[in-house]
Amino acid sequence: MSFNVYQASIPVLLRGLDNLSAILRKAEQDAAARNIAPEVFLQARLAPDMFPLLRQVQIVSDTAKGCAARLAGIEVPRGC
Q1: CA–CA separation, 66 vs 80, rounded Å?
Q2: Where, by residue number, does the polypeptide cross the bilayer (predicted)?
């Protein structure tokens, strides 16, 4: 059985993105239930030296996008 880098990385990235999506949906539901503007959660930090949640989501998606593009041998899309 052959094993390649795609099989080792893309399914893991997709699972991580699915999990992140579920977490964000739960946060949205929690914000609505507690009458909190969703932007409050998006700008929240768990610690003072962390990026806000919005920036962390951007980093996760850029990492997945960049990894997939590099494995495909294409230029990493910008501004998507």
Answers
A1: 11
A2: none
